[in-house]
Specification:
Number of strands: 0
Order of helices and strands: HHHHHHHH
Distance between the termini: 21 Å
Oligomer: single chain
Shape: globular
Largest sheet: none
Radius of gyration: 17 Å
Number of domains: 1
């Protein structure tokens, strides 16, 4: 018998599975000439708060079938999302406030290759890469329906294709591809009356 607290944690994780990608989706509508700007950057930074429980939920679906991957993969995903997402979000926020051009801050960041790599350029790619590997493993272990895992996989591929060149149309597509499966999984977490620890089953 699982406690009411366990179920509350699941419902909170389900809520975060919805809010995190939703904030990503909303943020891209506030891009300014391919730059985050103040509003988009703020939304990205706020989304990180929800991404952490969301990742716990997703990797938790594999904690029994792939315990080592679930633990190590979670850590890598949090590093990529939190460090990279928060780093680029704050960079966009501060550069907009202080009116620093994209070219100018790139030149300055090149003067600090190690720290810039740790905080931004190395951590950032780990977010979509983590989603890509996670989606494959969720499908392999039948933890989610194949089509949900496939959508996460497509979103992981589309994410860097939109964020690196900052193409808004592709960004909207990537965000929708990510929101749909996480929305469905999140709703099932919220509606569940028993602890989910192996797979997301059909309603």
């Amino acid at each position: 018998m699982k406690t009411e607290t366990d179920l509350l944690h699941l419902k909170l994780q389900g809520f975060c599975l919805i809010i995190a990608p939703l904030l990503f989706l909303i943020s891209t509508f506030f891009w300014i000439d391919g730059q985050y700007g103040i509003t988009a950057a703020t939304l990205i930074c706020l989304s990180i708060v929800f991404w952490i429980p969301a990742f716990y939920a997703l990797f938790g679906l594999l904690k029994y079938s792939m315990p080592y991957y679930a633990a190590i993969g979670l850590l890598i995903a949090i590093y990529g999302c939190c460090m990279g997402g928060m780093g680029f979000g704050m960079l966009g926020y501060l550069s907009a406030i202080f009116k620093i051009s994209h070219h100018s801050y790139l030149v300055i960041l090149q003067q600090y290759p190690i720290t810039s790599g740790l905080l931004l350029f190395w951590s950032g790619p780990l977010f979509p890469l983590s989603l890509l590997v996670l989606s494959v493993n969720l499908i392999r272990k039948k933890a989610v329906p194949v089509w949900l895992g496939a959508l996460i996989c497509l979103a992981a591929i589309a994410f860097p294709a939109s964020r690196i060149p900052r193409i808004a149309l592709i960004a909207h597509l990537a965000d929708v591809l990510l929101l749909i499966p996480l929305l469905i999984i999140g709703i099932r977490f919220i509606k569940t009356k028993e602890v989910i620890n192996a797979k997301i089953k059909k309603d």
